Amino acid sequence: xxxxxxxxxxxxxxxxxxxxxxxxxxxxxxxxxxxxxxxxxxxxxxxxxxxxxxxxxxxxxxxxxxxxxxxxxxxxxxxxxxxxxxxxxxxxxxxxxxxxxxxxxxxxxxxxxxxxxxxxxxxxxxxxxxxxxxxxxxxxxxxxxxxxxxxxxxxxxxxxxxxxxxxxxxxxxxxxxxxxxxxxx
Length: 185
Known about the structure:
Blueprint: H1 15-26, E1 30-33, E2 40-43, H2 48-64, H3 74-96, H4 100-117, H5 122-134, H6 138-150, H7 160-184
Antiparallel strand pairs: 1-2
Helix pairs in contact: 2-3, 3-4, 3-5
């Protein structure tokens, strides 16, 4: 058991974590290719505008979805598959267009190019979608959120004795609840 007064032991990050951090800081691109074609694209780390646009796209898709209680015919299933393919083309265009102005002016054309002209299917866009998911800087978001929560002046600071007493109360409450469930059945 560690003592409370000791300094926490810090471990050095692994080489992979260091590479990923430097890649994010330098905004290094990752080259992705579309399956069964020779076309390659460079994908950069996602920015806030891209995340907002993608969130709106997914929320709009959720609102438009039909209720599940209707019987699905063959044409309804085909429509759903085509809608999902359209969604994949839109998401791929968002992932590839890095920056506000590129999204503003090229998004409309690029997702239609993927869907109507090139007719990419979900399998062909899979590499773009999986790489785009990895390019979301979530760790930095979580770290900054955690630091901001810790900096709030309205938090009550507990002493070690108060924290220990609270934990003991919670443990005894759990034990008493499980005993009541066992005896009452």
